[in-house]
Amino acid sequence: MSLRLSTVILPYRRWSEGGRSAWTRAEELGFHTGYTYDHLSWRSFRDGPWFGAIPTLTAAAGVTDRLRLGTLVTSPNFRHPVTLAKELISLDDISDGRVTLGIGAGGTGFDATALGQEPWSPRERADRFAEFVPLLDRLLTEDAVTHEGEFYSAHEARNIPGCVQRPRLPFAVAATGPRGLKLAARHGQAWVTTGDPKLYETGTPEQSVEALRGQVGKLTEACAAAGRDVAELDKVLLTGFTPDRGRPLESLDAFVDFAGRHRELGFTEIVIHWPIPDSDFAADEKVFEQIALEALAQLD
User: Tell me, what DSSP letter sits at residue 231?
Assistant: First the structure.
């Protein structure tokens, strides 16, 4: 299977001050999908500008024609399935069916307490995610949904006319644990990973590849248990969080080598961060654009 190259554009710039131009340039460069993070604030960007994911993607839909659009990732930390479904159906309509929902269980960052709640334990995050995903699936595929769950309720929630993409827009489920992988196997059209976080500080690229190989193997097992062929799912690697860090963006050759090694593991899409000066995602913009324009041809 041919490899796709996508980018994630963090929503830290005003639309009139570089926000719009990044999305239009992403389409010009031929990226498959332009993603953005769905957070209320994030890490070192917390004390600076940070804009909402759904409005940003809606604006991006209005200035692009071919670029797919998505979140990496949306989580239950501050989202409710009923209101999220309405926003996604609207975005899918405005973009004429170009939306992918990256979705995960969430973490312990700023989003976890922004609504005044105590941070959820890993178990509670997994419990909520296990209810969130199937309910959102129903809300995006059925005209009216009533649900009384442990964490989420819906009372005759209407979502007419539904998604442009049928039966609904695709889910890219971020998961590495058994419960999340089970959700990916049952509800996902794609699976997302950032690698093994335990290796980020002291691991090696070789150890990371082996860890990712293990994750793909566990996904394969989860798909088999769900009666699905793992080949039906796209496998998405969000880069920047493995021991390689920013090295794959240092040169075209470095990226081609990195991408080739991960394509051999079965990955079908690699996502690289749009360069941000003076941050963990700093990169030479000329090299970044060269990678966008030339890397995939060298991998054919």
Answer: G
